[in-house]
Amino acid sequence: MSAPTRKIIHIDMDAFYASVEQRDNSDLRGRPVAVGGARERGVVAAASYEARQFGVRSAMPGATARRLCPELLFVSPRFEVYKQVSAQIRQIFAEYTPLIEPLSLDEAYLDVTENLKGIDTATQIAREIRAKIWEQTQLTASAGISYNKFLAKLASDFRKPNGQYVVPPGKGLAFVEGLQVGQFHGIGPVTATRLNQLGIFTGADLREQPEAFLVQHFGKAGRYYHAIARAEDHRPVQPDRLRKSVGSETTFAQDLSDFADLLAGVEPALEDVWAWCERSGGRGRTLTLKVKYGDFQQITRSRSSTAVFDSKAVLLRVCRELLEGLFPLPKGVRLLGVSLSNLNTAERAAGQQLTLRF
């Protein structure tokens, strides 16, 4: 028998860091808020929806954000609080399925094909999860529901904030073909521009291209573009995958060249990595800093240790030292990433199955 159609939910918290700050400080509610960038030079880690109306976005230099929105209120990040809230939300997910794949503190995939409560539809499960998140945290979440991860993640953006959207089986191709390629997860602004220069603007345009043509222009990523143009994504939700490394990265709205800006800019990626360490118990012996300059030249700098890096403070110190080694910078930096490898823990292989509930 063929495998049943998957039921995948992508949950994405709405302006998570900024929403937590507004929840905890009534003076911030209904006002444009940016988390981070509190110094004269700094980077926005997150922006409230009120701030986004002025064009303020995450990874934007604080000075630019201030020009766009003179009334913008800056608050320092409280990552320990965000991690506590994230753990609380994950407990809600676990009431419905053990198949949870966190992507960061504020988003995750859930496979609810077979769920712990025997609920017939993923739509109802998403609705219940969002209601419980609000009840327990006073924060809103958006959800995308579909039969694969790519479509579910796309769908979660369609009713933001505080909404959900379904792409049912048989509708994926029509959903994808009407989108601009820049809306696709995995296609950033630069790649979208390159696609546009090749006459590819929509999902329908992308689907017309042979795989060989896309590989010629985009390397192995071309195979991914060929698949998603057909609404194909066979990746399972993997809660217990064997990892060789864990990493996160941030692309900045404008190239950065000041050391303080870069140090602030690397912190969200470092927080994502350390959150995984705490959640999994895993630690690594090699830290790698990824740097992409404004002209898209990419370099990496690594530091290895005989013992695992056992605290966030140590990781931050190593990141600082690796950043210092880049100066004087030859050009502005558009992206910073942090990854840990040589991990000391092998997570259980994915594959746990639930008993069917009739």
Automatic annotation (TrEMBL):
Record site: Substrate discrimination: 17
Keyword field contains Cytoplasm: yes
UniProt keyword annotations, A-Z: Cytoplasm, DNA damage, DNA repair, DNA replication, DNA-binding, DNA-directed DNA polymerase, Magnesium, Metal-binding, Mutator protein, Nucleotidyltransferase, Transferase
Claim: Secreted is one of the keywords in the record: no
Active site location: 107
Xref: Gene3D superfamilies: 3.30.70.270, 3.40.1170.60, 5' to 3' exonuclease, C-terminal subdomain, DNA polymerase, Y-family, little finger domain
Swiss-Prot/TrEMBL cofactor(s): Mg(2+)
Record-listed E.C. numbers: 2.7.7.7
Chain residues that bind Mg(2+): 12, 106
Record GO terms (molecular function): DNA-directed DNA polymerase activity
Localization of this protein: Cytoplasm
Major place of residence: cytoplasm
Protein family membership: Belongs to the DNA polymerase type-Y family.
HAMAP family according to UniProt: DNApol_IV
Subunit details: Monomer.
The protein's name in its UniProt record: DNA polymerase IV
Annotated source species: Hymenobacter aranciens
Chain's gene name: dinB
